[in-house]
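Task card 7
Instruction: Convert sequence to C-alpha coordinates.
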Amino acid sequence: MRFLHAADLHLATAERAYSLGALEEIIRIAAREKCGAILLAGDVFDSYRDMEALRGEFRDRLESLPPDCAVFFIPGNHEELRSPSGRAPLSGLDLGRARIPEETPFQLFSLSPEAELLCLPFRRDYSDYRNWPAPPKKRPLRILLAHGLVPGIVYTGPEEESPAGTIDPDLFGYLSIDLAALGHIHAGSITRIGDTTVAYPGSARVWREGETGPRQVFLGATDTIPPRLVPVRLESAGAFVPLSLSVGLDGEVRLPQDFGTPGKMDWLHLEVSGVVEDERPVLEEARKIVTSLEKNCRRVTTDTAGLEVLAGISTHPLAREFLKRWEELARRRTAKGGFGGPEGDPETEADDVVFHLARRTGLSVLKSILEGRK
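Output:
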Protein backbone atom coordinates (compact mmCIF):
# COMPACT_ATOMS: atom_id res chain seq x y z
CA MET A 1 0.00 0.00 0.00
CA ARG A 2 1.20 3.51 -0.80
CA PHE A 3 0.80 6.37 1.66
CA LEU A 4 1.43 10.12 1.82
CA HIS A 5 2.96 11.84 4.87
CA ALA A 6 2.40 15.60 5.28
CA ALA A 7 2.57 18.08 8.17
CA ASP A 8 2.42 21.72 9.21
CA LEU A 9 0.09 23.01 6.53
CA HIS A 10 -1.21 25.79 8.83
CA LEU A 11 -4.53 26.36 7.07
CA ALA A 12 -5.51 29.92 7.96
CA THR A 13 -8.32 32.31 7.16
CA ALA A 14 -5.70 35.06 6.74
CA GLU A 15 -4.33 33.16 3.73
CA ARG A 16 -7.35 31.08 2.84
CA ALA A 17 -6.83 30.65 -0.91
CA TYR A 18 -3.08 30.07 -0.65
CA SER A 19 -3.17 27.52 2.18
CA LEU A 20 -6.18 25.65 0.78
CA GLY A 21 -4.40 25.52 -2.58
CA ALA A 22 -1.58 23.56 -0.95
CA LEU A 23 -4.12 21.17 0.62
CA GLU A 24 -5.73 20.64 -2.78
CA GLU A 25 -2.37 19.71 -4.29
CA ILE A 26 -1.69 17.22 -1.47
CA ILE A 27 -5.04 15.57 -2.23
CA ARG A 28 -4.29 15.49 -5.98
CA ILE A 29 -0.93 13.82 -5.34
CA ALA A 30 -2.50 11.19 -3.07
CA ALA A 31 -5.17 10.43 -5.69
CA ARG A 32 -2.65 10.33 -8.56
CA GLU A 33 -0.33 7.99 -6.65
CA LYS A 34 -3.24 5.75 -5.59
CA CYS A 35 -2.43 6.16 -1.90
CA GLY A 36 -4.35 4.06 0.59
CA ALA A 37 -3.73 6.56 3.39
CA ILE A 38 -2.78 10.17 4.09
CA LEU A 39 -0.92 10.72 7.37
CA LEU A 40 -1.28 14.31 8.63
CA ALA A 41 1.23 14.88 11.44
CA GLY A 42 -0.22 17.96 13.11
CA ASP A 43 -0.57 21.73 12.68
CA VAL A 44 -2.85 21.19 9.72
CA PHE A 45 -4.67 24.32 10.95
CA ASP A 46 -2.95 27.47 12.19
CA SER A 47 -5.18 27.72 15.26
CA TYR A 48 -8.37 26.33 16.74
CA ARG A 49 -10.27 29.33 15.40
CA ASP A 50 -8.95 28.64 11.91
CA MET A 51 -10.09 25.03 12.27
CA GLU A 52 -13.58 26.21 13.24
CA ALA A 53 -13.71 28.59 10.27
CA LEU A 54 -12.23 26.29 7.62
CA ARG A 55 -13.44 22.85 8.67
CA GLY A 56 -16.20 22.91 6.03
CA GLU A 57 -13.76 23.62 3.21
CA PHE A 58 -11.38 21.01 4.65
CA ARG A 59 -14.20 18.43 4.64
CA ASP A 60 -15.22 19.30 1.09
CA ARG A 61 -11.72 18.87 -0.27
CA LEU A 62 -11.23 15.49 1.41
CA GLU A 63 -14.39 14.27 -0.34
CA SER A 64 -12.54 14.41 -3.67
CA LEU A 65 -10.23 11.58 -2.51
CA PRO A 66 -10.85 8.04 -3.77
CA PRO A 67 -13.18 6.16 -1.38
CA ASP A 68 -10.44 3.71 -0.34
CA CYS A 69 -8.00 6.43 0.82
CA ALA A 70 -8.09 6.81 4.62
CA VAL A 71 -7.05 10.08 6.29
CA PHE A 72 -5.45 10.07 9.75
CA PHE A 73 -4.99 13.45 11.43
CA ILE A 74 -2.98 13.97 14.63
CA PRO A 75 -3.58 17.54 15.86
CA GLY A 76 -0.49 19.51 16.89
CA ASN A 77 0.17 22.41 19.21
CA HIS A 78 -1.40 24.92 16.78
CA GLU A 79 -4.79 23.22 16.83
CA GLU A 80 -4.87 24.18 20.52
CA LEU A 81 -4.01 27.84 19.97
CA ARG A 82 -6.89 30.17 20.90
CA SER A 83 -9.19 27.26 21.74
CA PRO A 84 -11.96 27.94 24.30
CA SER A 85 -10.44 25.81 27.04
CA GLY A 86 -6.77 25.65 26.11
CA ARG A 87 -7.34 22.12 24.82
CA ALA A 88 -8.99 21.63 21.45
CA PRO A 89 -12.32 19.74 21.86
CA LEU A 90 -11.89 18.09 18.47
CA SER A 91 -14.50 15.41 19.03
CA GLY A 92 -17.17 18.10 18.67
CA LEU A 93 -16.01 19.21 15.22
CA ASP A 94 -16.98 17.47 11.99
CA LEU A 95 -13.81 17.10 9.93
CA GLY A 96 -15.37 14.69 7.47
CA ARG A 97 -13.22 11.76 6.40
CA ALA A 98 -10.33 12.70 8.65
CA ARG A 99 -9.98 10.27 11.54
CA ILE A 100 -8.70 11.99 14.68
CA PRO A 101 -7.41 9.39 17.16
CA GLU A 102 -7.90 10.79 20.66
CA GLU A 103 -7.50 7.67 22.82
CA THR A 104 -4.54 8.01 25.18
CA PRO A 105 -1.76 7.19 25.39
CA PHE A 106 -2.09 5.86 21.81
CA GLN A 107 -4.39 4.11 19.37
CA LEU A 108 -3.45 1.29 17.01
CA PHE A 109 -4.92 0.84 13.50
CA SER A 110 -4.41 -1.68 10.72
CA LEU A 111 -3.25 0.04 7.52
CA SER A 112 -2.69 -2.97 5.28
CA PRO A 113 -1.86 -6.69 5.62
CA GLU A 114 1.79 -5.74 6.17
CA ALA A 115 1.51 -2.47 8.12
CA GLU A 116 -0.09 -0.95 11.22
CA LEU A 117 -0.34 2.64 12.39
CA LEU A 118 0.19 3.71 15.98
CA CYS A 119 -1.29 7.17 16.52
CA LEU A 120 0.02 9.22 19.44
CA PRO A 121 -2.31 12.11 20.35
CA PHE A 122 -0.48 15.38 20.92
CA ARG A 123 0.69 16.14 24.44
CA ARG A 124 3.19 18.50 26.01
CA ASP A 125 4.93 15.77 27.95
CA TYR A 126 5.68 12.32 26.54
CA SER A 127 8.19 11.43 29.26
CA ASP A 128 5.98 8.84 30.99
CA TYR A 129 6.05 6.51 27.98
CA ARG A 130 7.72 3.73 30.00
CA ASN A 131 4.46 3.44 31.93
CA TRP A 132 2.48 2.81 28.76
CA PRO A 133 1.59 -0.79 27.88
CA ALA A 134 3.71 -1.53 24.81
CA PRO A 135 1.31 -3.24 22.37
CA PRO A 136 2.52 -6.43 20.67
CA LYS A 137 3.38 -5.96 17.02
CA LYS A 138 0.71 -7.50 14.77
CA ARG A 139 2.19 -6.50 11.39
CA PRO A 140 5.78 -6.55 10.06
CA LEU A 141 5.79 -2.74 9.67
CA ARG A 142 4.76 -0.32 12.42
CA ILE A 143 4.41 3.40 11.67
CA LEU A 144 4.10 6.05 14.39
CA LEU A 145 2.12 9.23 13.66
CA ALA A 146 2.93 12.03 16.12
CA HIS A 147 3.72 15.73 16.54
CA GLY A 148 6.70 16.92 18.56
CA LEU A 149 10.44 17.54 18.80
CA VAL A 150 13.06 14.80 18.75
CA PRO A 151 16.35 15.82 20.46
CA GLY A 152 19.26 15.89 18.05
CA ILE A 153 17.19 16.98 15.06
CA VAL A 154 17.77 20.70 14.54
CA TYR A 155 14.81 23.00 15.08
CA THR A 156 15.30 26.60 13.94
CA GLY A 157 11.80 28.00 14.33
CA PRO A 158 10.71 30.79 16.66
CA GLU A 159 9.37 30.25 20.15
CA GLU A 160 5.77 29.13 19.89
CA GLU A 161 2.78 30.46 21.82
CA SER A 162 1.98 26.81 22.50
CA PRO A 163 5.20 24.77 22.41
CA ALA A 164 5.33 21.16 21.25
CA GLY A 165 6.41 18.32 23.50
CA THR A 166 9.77 16.56 23.30
CA ILE A 167 9.78 12.93 22.17
CA ASP A 168 12.54 10.81 23.69
CA PRO A 169 14.16 8.75 20.88
CA ASP A 170 14.03 5.70 23.18
CA LEU A 171 10.24 5.80 22.81
CA PHE A 172 10.65 4.50 19.26
CA GLY A 173 12.41 1.35 20.41
CA TYR A 174 10.03 0.84 23.33
CA LEU A 175 7.03 0.88 20.96
CA SER A 176 8.83 -1.09 18.18
CA ILE A 177 8.51 1.72 15.65
CA ASP A 178 9.95 1.22 12.15
CA LEU A 179 8.95 4.64 10.80
CA ALA A 180 8.16 7.74 12.86
CA ALA A 181 6.05 10.03 10.65
CA LEU A 182 6.32 13.31 12.54
CA GLY A 183 5.37 16.97 12.36
CA HIS A 184 6.44 20.29 13.95
CA ILE A 185 9.88 20.89 12.42
CA HIS A 186 9.43 22.99 9.27
CA ALA A 187 12.56 21.79 7.45
CA GLY A 188 12.31 18.40 5.77
CA SER A 189 14.58 15.63 7.05
CA ILE A 190 14.96 11.86 7.19
CA THR A 191 17.12 10.54 10.04
CA ARG A 192 17.96 7.06 11.21
CA ILE A 193 17.79 6.60 14.99
CA GLY A 194 18.51 3.04 16.03
CA ASP A 195 16.14 0.81 14.09
CA THR A 196 13.72 3.66 13.37
CA THR A 197 13.52 6.01 10.41
CA VAL A 198 12.47 9.43 11.75
CA ALA A 199 10.85 11.57 9.05
CA TYR A 200 9.79 15.22 9.05
CA PRO A 201 8.40 16.35 5.68
CA GLY A 202 8.66 20.00 6.79
CA SER A 203 5.96 22.63 6.46
CA ALA A 204 3.67 22.00 3.50
CA ARG A 205 3.66 25.71 2.67
CA VAL A 206 5.86 28.74 3.37
CA TRP A 207 4.44 29.75 6.73
CA ARG A 208 7.06 32.18 8.00
CA GLU A 209 10.09 34.18 6.97
CA GLY A 210 13.24 32.17 6.31
CA GLU A 211 11.65 28.88 5.26
CA THR A 212 13.88 28.34 2.24
CA GLY A 213 13.98 25.22 0.13
CA PRO A 214 11.14 23.26 -1.46
CA ARG A 215 7.87 22.66 0.39
CA GLN A 216 7.12 18.97 0.15
CA VAL A 217 5.37 15.80 1.26
CA PHE A 218 6.75 12.26 1.49
CA LEU A 219 5.43 9.32 -0.50
CA GLY A 220 6.07 5.86 0.91
CA ALA A 221 5.00 2.25 0.50
CA THR A 222 4.42 -0.42 3.14
CA ASP A 223 6.09 -3.27 1.22
CA THR A 224 9.59 -2.59 2.62
CA ILE A 225 11.02 -2.14 6.13
CA PRO A 226 11.81 0.63 6.63
CA PRO A 227 9.67 2.22 3.90
CA ARG A 228 11.53 4.12 1.21
CA LEU A 229 10.35 7.74 1.34
CA VAL A 230 10.31 9.89 -1.78
CA PRO A 231 9.95 13.68 -1.41
CA VAL A 232 7.42 15.31 -3.73
CA ARG A 233 7.59 19.07 -4.15
CA LEU A 234 4.41 21.11 -3.68
CA GLU A 235 4.40 23.56 -6.58
CA SER A 236 1.39 25.47 -5.27
CA ALA A 237 3.26 26.33 -2.06
CA GLY A 238 5.74 28.55 -3.87
CA ALA A 239 9.07 29.38 -2.26
CA PHE A 240 10.72 31.81 0.13
CA VAL A 241 13.17 33.74 -2.05
CA PRO A 242 15.76 36.00 -0.36
CA LEU A 243 17.17 38.67 -2.68
CA SER A 244 20.21 40.79 -1.90
CA LEU A 245 19.79 44.35 -3.20
CA SER A 246 23.02 46.32 -3.39
CA VAL A 247 22.82 50.11 -3.05
CA GLY A 248 25.19 52.51 -4.76
CA LEU A 249 26.48 55.65 -3.11
CA ASP A 250 24.11 57.54 -5.39
CA GLY A 251 21.18 55.79 -3.72
CA GLU A 252 20.31 53.57 -6.70
CA VAL A 253 18.90 50.20 -5.63
CA ARG A 254 19.92 47.36 -7.94
CA LEU A 255 18.13 44.04 -8.31
CA PRO A 256 20.40 41.04 -9.03
CA GLN A 257 21.16 40.74 -12.76
CA ASP A 258 20.02 37.12 -12.86
CA PHE A 259 16.69 37.82 -11.12
CA GLY A 260 13.87 36.36 -13.17
CA THR A 261 10.10 36.45 -12.86
CA PRO A 262 8.85 35.37 -9.42
CA GLY A 263 6.17 32.71 -9.06
CA LYS A 264 2.68 33.81 -8.08
CA MET A 265 2.93 31.95 -4.76
CA ASP A 266 6.50 33.05 -3.96
CA TRP A 267 7.44 35.13 -0.93
CA LEU A 268 10.22 37.56 -1.86
CA HIS A 269 12.41 38.91 0.93
CA LEU A 270 14.50 41.92 -0.12
CA GLU A 271 17.70 42.43 1.87
CA VAL A 272 18.82 46.01 1.17
CA SER A 273 22.44 46.71 2.11
CA GLY A 274 25.17 49.22 1.44
CA VAL A 275 26.66 52.50 2.62
CA VAL A 276 24.89 55.66 1.42
CA GLU A 277 24.95 59.35 2.09
CA ASP A 278 21.17 59.72 2.43
CA GLU A 279 18.85 56.79 3.11
CA ARG A 280 15.61 58.55 2.18
CA PRO A 281 15.88 58.10 -1.61
CA VAL A 282 16.95 54.50 -1.03
CA LEU A 283 13.87 53.70 1.04
CA GLU A 284 11.65 55.40 -1.55
CA GLU A 285 13.25 53.40 -4.38
CA ALA A 286 12.86 50.18 -2.36
CA ARG A 287 9.15 50.95 -1.86
CA LYS A 288 8.72 51.33 -5.63
CA ILE A 289 10.42 47.97 -6.21
CA VAL A 290 8.15 46.33 -3.62
CA THR A 291 5.06 47.80 -5.28
CA SER A 292 6.10 46.50 -8.70
CA LEU A 293 6.92 43.00 -7.39
CA GLU A 294 3.76 42.63 -5.31
CA LYS A 295 1.70 42.43 -8.50
CA ASN A 296 3.38 39.15 -9.44
CA CYS A 297 3.86 37.21 -6.22
CA ARG A 298 2.24 36.29 -2.93
CA ARG A 299 4.20 38.54 -0.57
CA VAL A 300 7.16 40.94 -0.51
CA THR A 301 9.01 41.92 2.66
CA THR A 302 12.11 44.06 3.14
CA ASP A 303 15.03 44.16 5.55
CA THR A 304 17.07 47.38 5.64
CA ALA A 305 19.20 46.45 8.66
CA GLY A 306 22.24 46.28 6.36
CA LEU A 307 21.83 49.88 5.19
CA GLU A 308 24.39 52.27 6.70
CA VAL A 309 24.49 56.06 6.37
CA LEU A 310 27.66 58.16 6.18
CA ALA A 311 27.34 61.70 4.84
CA GLY A 312 30.11 62.75 2.45
CA ILE A 313 31.61 59.29 1.92
CA SER A 314 31.37 59.52 -1.88
CA THR A 315 33.82 62.44 -1.89
CA HIS A 316 36.40 60.76 0.35
CA PRO A 317 39.57 59.66 -1.54
CA LEU A 318 39.77 56.27 0.18
CA ALA A 319 36.15 55.46 -0.64
CA ARG A 320 36.54 56.58 -4.25
CA GLU A 321 39.67 54.45 -4.69
CA PHE A 322 38.07 51.41 -3.05
CA LEU A 323 34.97 51.64 -5.26
CA LYS A 324 37.10 52.18 -8.37
CA ARG A 325 39.02 48.96 -7.75
CA TRP A 326 35.89 47.01 -6.84
CA GLU A 327 34.20 48.12 -10.08
CA GLU A 328 37.27 47.03 -12.06
CA LEU A 329 37.08 43.58 -10.49
CA ALA A 330 33.34 43.47 -11.18
CA ARG A 331 33.89 44.23 -14.88
CA ARG A 332 36.58 41.56 -15.19
CA ARG A 333 34.40 39.06 -13.38
CA THR A 334 31.42 39.81 -15.66
CA ALA A 335 33.62 39.48 -18.76
CA LYS A 336 34.76 36.05 -17.54
CA GLY A 337 31.17 34.96 -16.82
CA GLY A 338 31.47 35.10 -13.06
CA PHE A 339 33.98 32.81 -11.36
CA GLY A 340 33.74 30.22 -14.08
CA GLY A 341 31.55 27.70 -12.26
CA PRO A 342 28.35 26.22 -13.66
CA GLU A 343 25.02 27.90 -13.01
CA GLY A 344 23.43 26.59 -9.81
CA ASP A 345 26.76 25.32 -8.48
CA PRO A 346 26.86 25.95 -4.68
CA GLU A 347 30.52 27.03 -4.73
CA THR A 348 29.89 29.52 -7.53
CA GLU A 349 26.86 30.94 -5.72
CA ALA A 350 28.89 31.23 -2.51
CA ASP A 351 31.63 33.11 -4.39
CA ASP A 352 29.01 35.50 -5.77
CA VAL A 353 27.73 36.22 -2.26
CA VAL A 354 31.27 36.80 -0.95
CA PHE A 355 32.12 39.10 -3.86
CA HIS A 356 29.14 41.39 -3.26
CA LEU A 357 29.58 41.21 0.50
CA ALA A 358 33.15 42.51 0.06
CA ARG A 359 31.82 45.82 -1.25
CA ARG A 360 29.50 46.31 1.69
CA THR A 361 32.14 45.22 4.21
CA GLY A 362 34.81 47.47 2.73
CA LEU A 363 32.58 50.53 2.86
CA SER A 364 31.45 49.66 6.38
CA VAL A 365 35.05 49.49 7.55
CA LEU A 366 35.77 52.85 5.91
CA LYS A 367 32.67 54.26 7.60
CA SER A 368 33.90 53.08 11.01
CA ILE A 369 37.39 54.54 10.42
CA LEU A 370 36.07 57.89 9.23
CA GLU A 371 33.57 58.16 12.07
CA GLY A 372 36.33 57.33 14.55
CA ARG A 373 38.34 60.31 13.34
CA LYS A 374 35.58 62.76 14.13
